[in-house]
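Repro:
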Amino acid sequence: MTADTRRFLNAAGEFLRADPARNTVILTVTEDLRVKAAASARALFGWWQPDGEPVGAAFMQTSDYPLLLSQVSVPAAARLAGDLTEARRRVPGVNAGQEAADAFAAAWRDRTGDTVAVYRRIRLFRLGELIPPGRWPDGMARLAARTDRDLLARWFGAFAREVGDPPGQDHRGAVAERLDYGGITVWETGGVPVSVAGRTRAVAGMVRVGPVYTPPEVRGHGYASAATVAVSQAAQEAGLREVVLYTDLANPTSNALYQRLGYRPVEDRVVFSFAPVRRRLGFIRERTRGLRPAGRW
C-alpha cells in the first residue's frame, strides 16, 4: 500500500492498462494526479502481488469515496479488509464486483462490527458502433468555455446531489480542470445551454463519459442524448479505442438511453456503505482515520 501515486503506477500501471475499460476510474484519477503533479493526503492505493507472480489486483480509496477494487479474487478481497482494519484505516464502503464486494464487506463487518448496506448498483458500458438519435433536438454542441464556469459548477453540483455523491466537493475546481483539457461539451439551443456531457482525460487509449446532466425543467427533449453522442463521436474521431461510461442500475431511463446510442454492457458492480453501530452504552464507535497502513497489499 502507498499514498504515493508514482510508486503505485510503477508497480500496478501495467496491470491497470491491460484492461483500461474495467480499470477506468483508477486510471483516470491517477492520471489527473500525475498531470497536476499533485498528491492527495487522504488517498491510498495498493496492489496485490503474490510472491514471484505478476500484480493481480489493485485498489484506490480517495477522500470520502468508497474503496474501489479492480477485479480481484475473493481471498485477496477479504485479506485487504483485514489489512486495512489492522492499520486503522477507516473506509466508508467498497465498490467492486459482487463476489469481491461480499467478501470484503463480510470481513470488514466481522472485524469492525459495522453495518453493511447496498448503496448503489452500477453497470459499466463500452461504446460499440455509435448510433445517433433518430431525431436530433434543436440546437448544437460546442465545447464549454470559461464563461460557462458558474453555470457548469451549479450543474455539476446538482448532478452530484441527484446521484448521492459525497457532499462538499469543489465543483468549481472540477469544472476549471476539465475546461483546461476540453473535457466538457455543452448542448445549447437558441444560444442557451440546456445540457452538458463531460469526459475524463484520455489514458491508455480510453476515455470515460460523464457526468451527463440536463436540468429537470428542460428534460424530455433529447438534449442529453445529443450531448452524449457529440462527446462519444469526438472521442472516437480522436482515435480512442475505448469509450466507456457508468450508469446507475436503478435508473432505467439512462440505461436504455445509452444502449440506444450503441453502448454495450461490460460488467456490473455493487457499492456497499459501512456505518458504525452503537455500543451497548450508547456510544458510537470511533476509529482512527488517515493512518498509512503496512501490509502485503
